[in-house]
Amino acid sequence: MMPKNPGDHEQDGSDATGGGLYPNLSAADERAVDLLIEHGFDLDAAVRANPSEAKRLAAAHALFVRTEAYPVQAPDASLVDATMARIAREEDEREERLKIGSRGVPTLGRGRWADFVALACVALLLLSIGMPLLSNLQHRRGIDLCANNLRALASGLELYTKDFSSRPIAAGFAPDFSGLKSWKKYDNRQHLALLHKHGYCDPACMHCANDASHDGYASMVPHERMNPAWLTASGLPIVADRNPVVFLTRGGRVAETLTMNSLDHDSDGQNVLFRDGAVRFILTPVLEIRPPQGGPMRTDDIWVPADRAGLEVEFNDSHTPGEWSALDVFLTQ
Fold it and tell me: Helices then strands (H, E): number in the chain?
């Protein structure tokens, strides 16, 4: 404790307990300590700056020197060794906790294992999203390639029509269907084949890119009552993807429904080329079409021929070409 000057009470007007930053010092002693701190505990510098406080500064400085000289016992070497050993043991235990498995087999640490699981989850998420997306893109690409083929086919048809003043008909302008007993045995591909034969269309344009059998596009069956409409009606469907009803029945299978979509695009719909050159992907073969002879719009299934009564009945062997009214749209390959 800092020694007190008996005259401090008279000089400072304070008691021994003080009332400042140092509760056990008088105000004068506190000022001496502050002066030493300000001069970095350099006694000579503090005295030169405050000669009137020389005695008090020396007493405060002597107290700090005495504290620094207080003897301290050196640490025991065994304590140092014990501390280092405990640090090493903690490190070993930490490494052991980060291992999974047994018998010392090196494995992923807990942190790395979590990273691996996170990456696996991201990979699964990408696969779950990416695979359907890729499949959808491939499906969409097949539809677009097919539509491009039909556009090229439309150009060939337009040029052929201008050059020959007729649509391409391989068997003459008014084919005779009287001897044909079934539409299943009818080959309509020969008409569009004239485009390739005369150089109006590339072979790739003759069938859909998704048609692995190259069965060919379905086109309007020629008839003397329908041919004028083919040349003039802009909204008339003239070519489309494969007719699924005829395709299945030719293979001996029964079509589930007469309104089924083409098989070229996973039965999602069909590309249809209209007489004005437009190509549209429609979701059903049943369209609203204006009759070739005029009149109000009516519903027409492009896959099924209508009978003389104007009804598109069940497609079977009894529905012969001779019963066809030839006043509706019938597209087949």
Answer: 9, 7
pLDDT digit string, tens, across residues 241-262: 999 988 888 877 877 778 899 9
What pTM did the predictor assign?
0.59
Q: How far is CA 310 from the centre of its chain?
A: 49
Find where tokens 């039965």 sit: 267
Q: Which residue in 200, 202, 288, 280 sits closest to 239, CA to CA?
A: 280
CB-based burial, 122-135: b 16+ in 10 Å, e otherwise = eeeeeeeeeeeeee
Residue 272 CA, distance from chain mean position: 30
CA angle, 312 then 318 then 319, to 5°: 30
Q: How does DSSP assign 245-262, residue by residue?
A: HHHHHHTTPPPS-TTPPP
CA-based radius of gyration for the chain: 51
Q: Could you tell me which residue, 77 or 210, shows the higher pLDDT?
A: 210
